[in-house]
Each structure stands twice: as structure tokens, then as C-alpha cells.
Amino acid sequence: MLFRQLFDYDTWTYSYLIADEATGEAALVDSVLEQVDRDVQLIEQLGLKLRYCLETHVHADHITGAGKVRERTGCKTLVPENAHVDCADGYIKDGEVIHVGSIPIQAIATLGHTDSHMAFLVNGTHLLTGDSLFIRGCGRTDFQSGDAGAMYDAVTQRLFTLPDTTLVYPGHDYRGHTVSTIGEEKRFNPRFVGRDRQQFIEFMANLNLPDPKKIMEAVPANQQCGMVAAAV
């Protein structure tokens, strides 16, 4: 399996390129509009056929590059079920498995950051957690129908039940981390270790975080696959 982690410095966002090296089929997860040229160039250099642009959720902190990538590669854009993105080519449900060549990508509903969030388990070993679980942290739950209790349930009852060796690749990192494991996060993640569900809800309710810089433009733009006049 080809697996690449790609970074956007302005928004601290990770995108992921996954491909079956035998067939050349590929998927790009959580693309960033400003990085479309970089990502398409990499796909072309590696001789890959991009089948899917996947989104873990409707982002509030950056505009997706999915629409532009679709224009240039002919891929399909897939978003979680119940996401309000009418321009998407399809919706992916909890438990659904898509393939790029022989590489399975399984959707795992991880609600809480938003009400339509998915993590993706790639090849049974690489977990793309989006904004549900960060390395030693987690996404916020105070907008876009966020629900701290749902996030606690999703992380502790779904993600933390995966094998400890499962590699954790988050949607963002603000401290220079690139990868962790489920075992590490179960032992060291301060958002979850030593907190029960109610304590987690109370903790998340008192974070008092500022809104993301791009929240006013990012959400409506992402509901149009990033294809908005101000963004293209």
C-alpha cells in the first residue's frame, strides 16, 4: 500500500493519499483547496488513477479542494451520510467499505465534532480520525451540531476498541506530531484518560476556544465542494 501524509501549514491540516501500488487506484482524504496543485502533481508523478476524494466531515477551518480535484482528475467526491453537501457524488455510511484496488477503506461513524463525522480505517491498520481524535487531544464540539457526549462514546466505544497497534493519523496537529497508535492514545490522551462521560462533557463545555479563522467562509464553501467564486 502507498500511504502519504500531506500537510497544509496555514490550517495545520493533514490530507492523506492512499493507493494500491499494483493497480494504481487511489483515494485522497480531506484535501485542502490551496494544496490542489501539489496534490494533483503528486498523483500524476506517481502515475495514480484517483478514484475518490473523501471527506471525514464538513470542515470549518479550511476549504476543501475536492471540487477542483474532481475537475482535474475525474474522481468521485464522497462525504459522510447526513452531511449537507448536495454537490457530492455520493454518501458513505457507517460500516460501508470502499476499495482502491485491493485496499479496503472502512467508514466508522464518529459523531461529536459534527453530526455527520466519519473516521476511515484503511487496510485494517491505518485509522484516519479526522477531527474526532487527535494525538493527545480531540476536536472541539461547540459548533456544527457538535455533541461532547457523542464524541466520548465514539472515541471510547468505537475507536478505542480497535487493536492497540492501529496507527492513528489525525486531521490536524498543532504540535508537530504525525502519527500515534490507539494504544498510545488510550494511555496518554489527556482528554479521555481519567475522565468519565460526564466529566468529559463538562471539560469540553469549558474550553472557551475562539472560532476558527475561516469558519464563516469554510462551511458554506465546503457544502459546495469548495467550488465558490471567492475560492477559485
From TrEMBL:
Its cofactor is Fe(2+). InterPro entries: Metallo-B-lactamas, Mito_Persulfide_Diox, POD-like_MBL-fold, RibonucZ/Hydroxyglut_hydro. Keywords: Acetylation, Dioxygenase, Hydrolase, Iron, Metal-binding, Oxidoreductase, Transit peptide. GO terms for molecular function: hydrolase activity; metal ion binding; sulfur dioxygenase activity. GO terms for biological process: glutathione metabolic process; hydrogen sulfide metabolic process. The keyword Transferase does not apply. SUPFAM superfamilies: Metallo-hydrolase/oxidoreductase. Residues 12-172 form the Metallo-beta-lactamase domain. It comes from the Bacteria. Belongs to the metallo-beta-lactamase superfamily. Glyoxalase II family. This is MBL fold metallo-hydrolase. It comes from Thermosynechococcus sichuanensis E542. The lineage of its organism: Bacteria, Bacillati, Cyanobacteriota, Cyanophyceae, Acaryochloridales.
